[in-house]
Automatic annotation (TrEMBL):
One of its GO terms (molecular function) is kinase activity. PROSITE patterns: RESPONSE_REGULATORY (PS50110). Residues 284-398 form the Response regulatory domain. Keywords: Kinase, Phosphoprotein, Transferase, Two-component regulatory system. The modification 4-aspartylphosphate is found at D333. The keyword Phosphoprotein applies. The keyword Cell inner membrane does not apply. Transmembrane segments: none annotated. The lineage of its organism: Bacteria, Pseudomonadati, Thermodesulfobacteriota, Desulfovibrionia, Desulfovibrionales. This is Cytidylate kinase-like protein. CDD domains: REC_YesN-like. One of its GO terms (biological process) is phosphorelay signal transduction system.
Amino acid sequence: MSVITVFNGLFCEAGVVVKRVVDATGCRLVTDQDIVADAASLSGMAEDRIARAFQAKTSVFNTFSHEKEQAIAWMRLALAKRLVEGDDLVIPGFVSQLPSRSIGHILNVCLISEMKSRLAVADREEGFAEKHAMKLIRKDDEDRAAWVKAVRDADDPWAGSLYDLVVPVGTTGVERSADLIVEQFSNAAVKVTEGSKASCEDFLLAARVETVLAKEGHNVQVSAKKGTVTLTINKHVLLLEKLERELKSIVSDVEGVKTVEAGVGKGFHQTDIYRKMDFEVPSKVLLVDDEREFVQTLSERLMMRDMGSAVVYDGESALNLVRDDEPEVMILDLKMPGIDGIEVLRRVKGEHPDIEVIILTGHGSEADRKVCMDLGAFAYLHKPVDIDVLSETLKAANEKIRAGK
C-alpha cells in the first residue's frame, strides 16, 4: 500500500511521466476525477460542485455555505478510504495535496518546469501561441496556489519543503524524471510500516470526523492520533466555550473516537468570524434589484439572520452570476433597466429549474403575478415587505430545496 503523490504545473509533461511510473511500478492510478466521484457518492453533493473546490475563485456565498470546505472534507474522506484499502497507488493532481504528511509510506513528488520549457510544450503538444499558453499557465498556477494555501496553508505551491522529491522535468527529461521517481519509490523510507499504517487510520478517522462536523454545519481543522481527536478553531467566535462543548458533543459519538480536545489556532484572533451553517435557511441567496440602497440594506438584514447573500443591480449581471455561481434562491425585482425581471425569471427557470425565485416588486400587477407564477416563481411579494414575512418565505423555499435533494 505504498503511495506516490504527484503535484504538477500545467504543460510540465506530468501525464507522460505519471504513465511511465504507473507502468514501471504496477501501481493503480487514482485521479482527481476518481476522488471527486467517490466524494459525490459519499456526500450527495454534485460532482461539479465538488470539483469547483479546485478553482481559485471562491463562491460569493461561501462564507455562509462552506461549500468549498465541505467539498475538501468529503474528498479527504474519499481519499482516506482509498489509502487504507491496501493497494499501491499513484495519485496525481490536486488531491495529491490532501493526505496527511505523517503517513510515512507516501512519496510526495512535484513535477515542474521553467516557463520557457512549459511554453515550448504548449506549442509542441497543443499548438498554442505563446500569449494564449501564458494565460492558461497563469490561471492554472493561480488555481494550484489557492488550493495549496487552502489545504496546506502554504504560500508557494512549488516549495521544496512540501515534497520529498522536486523534479524539473524540462531539464531532466520525461524518461529520467520517471526513473527518478521509481528509484525513490523503492527506497526503504517509503515502505509500509506499522507506524505508517496507524497514521493512515488516523487520517481516516480525522476525515470521518471532519465530514460529520460538516453535516452539522461546522468548519474546523481536525487531526487525530490513536483515537484522540484534536479540533482547532481558526476563526473568531464570541462564545468559544459553548462552541467547544457543541463540537465535542458531536465528535464524541463518532466511532473510533476515544477523547476529544479542542482549542484555537493561529487564525482565531483575526477579524474573520466563525459561522456555523444554518440548514433551516438558504445560504446562497441572490438579490436582484436596481434600487441600490434598498437591496444593500436588505442583504445586510438577511446576513444578520445567517443567510448568505450576494447583490447585483440588473438582469444581465444576475444571469452571469447564475451561470458562474448558482444560487439556491433568487429574490428578483420586475422593473429594471435592460433585461427585466420576467425575462430573467423565464431564463433562470428554463436553464436552472432547481433555483427558487421569489418576486419582490413595487410595481407589479395581477397580470404580472399570474405570469410569474406560471413561469415557476416560488412566491410573489410586494414592496415594502416585512422582513419576517420574507424570512419565512425564504425558509419555505429552502425546505422545498432540501426536500428535492
